[in-house]
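Hi Y.,

Following your request, here is the sequence exactly as I used it, all 160 residues.
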Amino acid sequence: MKPIIKLLLEGGGLTTAQMAQVLKLSEADVNRELDQLKQQRVLLGFRPVLNLVLEDAELVRAVIEVRITPERGGGFNRLAERISRFDEVESCYLMSGGYDLLVFVRGSSLQKVAAFVSEKLATIEGVISTATHFMLRSYKEHGFMLDAGTQESERLKVSP
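Below is the corresponding structure, written out as C-alpha cells. Let me know if you'd prefer a different format.
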C-alpha cells in the first residue's frame, strides 16, 4: 500500500501540508500524488464521519441481504451495478455465504426504506429474496466511537 493511501486512511483530516510533513515530501508532490490517485479512481472522495444522533437527523438506515441469480457471462456484476445505481443505496458488496449482496440503504422513514425494498429492489428480475435489517443505533462509525458518554481511556476488561 502506498504511504499516502495509508496516511489518508489513518490520518483523518490532515491538510496536504501536514501530509507532506509526515511523508517528508513537498506539498506540491503530495498534491500531485493525490491528483494521480483521483485520475486512477483510487481516491474517489473524502467524507466526514458524523454522529447523526447528536444532529437529530431524520434518517433511517438499513442493511439488506440480497440473494440473486448469477447471469451467464456476467455473474453477479450486472445486477450488483444496477442495484448500486439507486439513490437510496449507500454501499453494495458482493459477499460469500448465505446471501450474495449486502446492501446498505438510507431513507427518510421506515416506510420509505420498506417501499424501496418491496417496490424497487425485490421486483428486479434475478433477485431471489431479500432480508432487511433496520439499524437501530450506531456505536462506532469508520473507527470512531459515537457515544459521547464513553470514556476514551476506559480499558477493556481482560479475564484470565
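The mean pLDDT is 85.

Thanks again,
Q.
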